[in-house]
Write a structure and sequence with these properties.
- The protein is mainly α.
- It is built from five helices and two strands, in the order E-E-H-H-H-H-H.
- The chain has one domain.
- Helix 1 packs across helix 3 and helix 2 crosses helix 3.
- The longest helix has 29 residues.
- It is globular, with a radius of gyration of 15 Å.
- The chain starts with a strand and ends with a helix.
- 19% of the residues are buried.
């Protein structure tokens, strides 16, 4: 589990990434976070390299992922994603998304390292 604060519109917002995130995401949005994050990361890399804008679907994925990670860090936030988003002024996805992707990547790296260490302990 990794927890980090990311500043959005001058406000520190806690985000948390762990093995629970895919389950929370699937339960809330009925989607696969691994597929969505892969698509979002590809879009982000393509958009920043080509100077293009995100598609509506990509923005929705970003909002959903950010919401789930924020909810995982602080489950006192609003149950409705729209109510949560309403607390922020407009902000740039390009400022927040790289930090969300980094948090997810750090968590995945931690999971892989832990599994390797467990396999070594078990003699596999």
């Amino acid at each position: 589990m990794i927890k980090r604060e990311i500043e959005i519109c001058g406000k520190p917002v806690p985000f948390r990434s762990s093995a629970t995130v895919p389950r929370l995401y699937r339960a809330k949005f009925k989607r696969d976070i691994f597929k969505d994050l892969s698509k979002l990361e590809s879009s982000y890399k393509g958009n920043t390299e080509n100077g293009e804008e995100f598609q509506i679907e990509d923005l929705e994925i970003f909002e959903n992922v950010a919401y789930i990670m924020a909810y995982h860090a602080d489950n006192s936030i609003p149950q409705d994603i729209n109510d949560w988003l309403d607390q922020f002024d407009m902000f740039s996805i390009y400022e927040v998304l790289p930090q969300i992707l980094e948090l997810w990547g750090d968590n995945m790296l931690t999971d892989v390292t832990a599994k390797k260490e467990l396999a070594e302990v078990n003699g596999k």
